[in-house]
Amino acid sequence: MNPAVPVPTPETLPFWEGTAMGELRLPWCVPCGAPFFYPRRTCPDCGSAEIEWRAASGRATLQSYIINHRPIPAGDPLIIAIVKLEEGPRMMTNIVNVEPVPEDLTLDMALEVAFVDRDGQSLAVFGPVGSW
Amino acid sequence: MVGAHAAIVGASETASLGALPQMSVLELHAEAARAAAADAGISMSEIDGIATARPLPLDVAHYLGINARWIDGTAVGGTSFLLHVRHAAAAIAAGAANVVLISHGESGRSRVGALGAPDDSATPVGQFDKPYGAVTPYSTFTIPAMRFLHERGLGVDALASVVVEQRKWAIGNPRAARTKPVSIEDVLAAAPIAYPFTKDMCCVVTDGGGALIMTSAERAADLSPKSPPVYLLGAGEANGSPLVSQMPDLGSFEGFRRSSAEALAQAGIGTGDIDHFMGYDAFAHLPLYMLEDIGFVGRGESAAFVADGQTGRDGALPMNTNGGGLSYTHTGMYGMFAIQESVRQLRGTAFNQLPDIELSLVQGVGGFFWTSGTLVLSNRQP
To answer: What is residue A116's DSSP assignment?
Structure first.
């Protein structure tokens, strides 16, 4: 088994079912009126179990990144980044469709989501707006 | 009060640090433990409490023939030992233990008797950070640094300055791993690991161990140690997020703020009273976060503070006087070695000994901004 392939748990399954359909779903806390990440059964802010799954816009901004030059997980330089979704939460991802050089990676730049297959599991990755 | 009751009466690292393929993880623990007990002037049979992070305390206790009545296996990354000191002080104050051994051993470089990584693909980290390559320390711990620099209008040379200043403390130290002077240009030209981090901005990878013996301040006065006791005046600990992507603020670690505030308040002192600072520097950005989050400097002032030499020999706050994880040693869990250097400075036995110091603050970090631990140590009995 490739350890880089995520294994869903009952609490996170709706998220992974979403990525498989090309949709970035977030758990929303109904009382708070806001989404959170990563998926949990209860809201980490207020503790409510009243959760709804909604599709996010897929728009995000670049918060921080590294360009990995070591052979983990791939041989080529890989951009590992934290992005902030338009809806508020942040998530880890890879930035694609851009050269892995700092000149092309401006913090707060606008990004949009796409999905890539990883051994049968669909991962959300991000590229500059219009790059897909 | 956790502090004021307990003292470190024995402290030692393994006889050698670096590449030690002839020793297992357990023997690294044991060698350091025997040396720390000898330093304290006590027999191993007097130890009735044990704390280790990895492997389990039962493994180390059995290996050494210790019969414990107090056991702590807190494992929250490389700052675990700072938490052990705090927990041991509480146990001693409560009468749950009289003499506690806190030990560390790790075959980080040679991997002899080392523990394997768990299969964690179904954990939150395994599902939401790791699939993207945020797996190793250099590809995970490093990620928030660009945000820190961006928010303060700093360039990558701010990270290089930390390396240059840390290296100055390691020059000539036969126990340090990296001892050659470096310039900012050298550091920036070193092999790229994970931009903006070059090899010199990442810690060394070594084998080694260290151990502490703690007892009550009262009992410390009755021992015949080789070296004077070091008293715990204050301590704090705090959890952060196991996912680096979920840090509330990428340019600051609230765990550092919380644990250091508690430790300083407990000691009844402010940052201006601290004579010496050990800040866990697995990577070059960490001391910058710590200096600001603890409050030694204001937000945005840490990089200039370091570049101006204020953490050097003649500076306002000598920092990481052993060379730190960047230059001295880093087995994988550096916290024990940060404590060891504070103890040496307070006893007057450090390689780069500072004159007239009474108060040292040790700031640890566990995992990748997972956990924070802070100790305020002194050679003056409270």
So the answer is: E
Ranges under pLDDT 50 in chain B: 1
CA distance to partner chain B, nearest, from residue A130 (Å): 22
3-class DSSP state for residue B378?
A: strand
Q: Which of B330, B363, B121, B145 is nearest to B244 (CA)?
A: B145
What is d(CA B351, CA B338) in angstroms, rounded to the nearest whole number?
14
Preferred mutation among A16, A24, A38, A41 to probe B, highest tally of B CBs within 10 A: A38
Please, what sign has the CA dihedral across residues B288, B290, B292, B295?
A: negative
Residue B303's φ and ψ, nearest 5 degrees, are: -65, -45
Asked if residues B170 and B327 have their Cβ atoms less than 8 Å apart, the reply is yes
Q: Measure CA B376 to chain center.
A: 13
Residue for token pair 């700092």? A102
Cα–Cα dist A115/B191, whole Å: 32
Distance CA B62, CA B29 (A): 12
Q: What is the C-alpha to C-alpha distance for residues A46 and B149, in angstroms, rounded to an integer?
A: 33
- pTM for this predicted structure: 0.96
Cβ <8 Å between B250 and A74: no
Q: Do residues B281 and B324 touch, judged by C-beta distance below 8 A?
A: yes
Length of chain B: 382
Q: Which pLDDT score, from 0 to 100, does residue A2 have?
A: 61
Between CA A114 and CA A49 the distance in angstroms is: 29
Query: CA B37 from chain center: how many Å?
Result: 21
Say if residues B235 and B209 touch (Cβ distance below 8 Å).
Answer: no
Question: Backbone dihedral region of B355: left (phi > 0), alpha (psi from -120 to 50 degrees) or beta?
Answer: beta
How far is Cα B215 from Cα B93, in angstroms, rounded to an integer?
9
Name the closest residue on chain A to residue B133, using Cα atoms.
A73
**Does A14 lie at the interface with B, CB-CB under 8 angstroms?**
no
Region A56-84: what's the mean pLDDT?
90
| Residues B259 and B373 sit within 8 Å (Cβ to Cβ) | yes
Q: Chain B contacts of A69, Cβ < 8 Å?
A: 191-195
* Both structure tokens of A86: 């338009």
In sign, the C-alpha dihedral spanning B160, B165, B168, B169 is negative
Are A66 and B146 in contact (CB < 8 Å)? yes
For residue A78, pLDDT over 60 is answered with yes
User: Which residue has better confidence, B201 or A119?
Assistant: B201
pLDDT, position A3: 59
Subunit contact B195:A69, Cβ cutoff 8 A: yes
Q: What is the DSSP letter of A5?
A: S
Q: How far apart are CA B207 and CA B337, in angstroms?
A: 12
A95: left (phi over 0), alpha (psi -120 to 50) or beta: beta
